[in-house]
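Multidrug transporter subunit MdtD: structure tokens wanted.
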Amino acid sequence: MQTPRSMSIMLWTVAVGFFMQTLDTTIVNTALPAMARALGESPLRMQSVVIAYALTMAMAIPASGWLADRFGTRRVYMAAIVLFVAGSLACALSRSLDALVAARVVQGVGGAMLLPVGRLAILRTFSSDQYLRALSFVAIPGLVGPLIGPTLGGWLVSIASWHWIFLINVPVGLAGIVATRLFMLDARTPVQRFDLKGYFLLAVGMMTLSLSLDGLAELGLQHATVLVLLVVSLAALTAYALHATRATYPLFPLDLFRIHSYCVGLLGNLFARIGSGAMPYLLPLLLQVSLGYTPFHAGLMMLPVAAAGMAVKRVAAPLIVRYGYRRVLVTNTVLVGLAMASFALVSPHQPLALRLLQFGVFGAVNSLQFTAMNTLTLKDLARGGASSGNGLFSMVQMLAMSLGVTVAGALLAAFQTMLATNESAGSLPSFHATFLSVGLITAASAWIFAQLAPDVKRVARAGANRLGAPHERHASDEI
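Answer:
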């Protein structure tokens, strides 16, 4: 029987698990140059460390809910923590880039199940009048993790070594395993047969797409191989669409795409987040590789981004209520693209105050973008399919994060070759060209949001009233 004390401890267990998962999406970024030196790699070709984690999470998220229903929330949540801790320990013990990437895959599998299964455990433990408050409590660490991640990563690298950004997960995870075993309800429900064929097609499509984009930049693949991977990706995704029309219980029903706001929001998230996913990877590298910042100081420079992002949440709802989703998203998407492109003007002689202002402005418009995109995507799912729709949305968010780092790495490598620069101070022109490119990609995605019908205030207000609801935020929402 669940007592108030056991329910409170379970809530803390889920919150800490969410914190670990969100922390590891950003803590690695400032440590990449130090990791590269230790492993004998180029700091500009370390994107696979980030991609492996994000892409694995995107692939594992769709199966997490079914596994929890089939085997029980307590058992699956414990397995998630075990995998996350084992992956973290393997990361710290890695002696080569390949070993580190493999360990990040294990860590990503565990991380993918922490939040969805934790939410499910809360839903089945707390009554309906307590659920929103409980979920709001769990959401707080999801904001704190990305806020302190870059600074904490830089600090640990400065005072110890990069290994500690992974080792700090071990004692926390072990405590979480004990708490889960003792206090979490092992709830399960009857489930339909898992859509294994659909899952396989989606996984192949996402993996081959990421490999094809990363192939020329880091893996050294030939053009013909990259082309084959792109064709396989397109074929797999098309095959899933055909499969979903015939399957009795598809992983993600195609009926979801009949909801106009969901369809536009999902596509907008995918393409607009490519640029936003690239920035947490590019900015710490720019500061350390081209401008000579220490890891700790590079992490501190991310604080204005996160602080401005949190501050702007207060004005998001009034803006959407007054102007509607289409006007806000079209305008703000262009502003986000311009903010990204403005980093092409960064120079070693730029005043610190101006640089801080630039980071803050980017953080503000980027945060507003996430809030508006998230609420647009989910606001009409009450018609049905909320579970599968939210799962697909979470998968797209992580896929876009992976693609963002992949695209950034590919562009950076291409411009390094094209501009014939070296990887010290001379790499600055390559960064400038990359920021211009990701800014252009992001601004161009405003065309997707332009397809929205003009919002009436009733619809805008209904969506905006949900701004900040825990289920509409995600780990990738902050840098």
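The radius of gyration is 21 Å. The mean pLDDT is 81.

Cheers.
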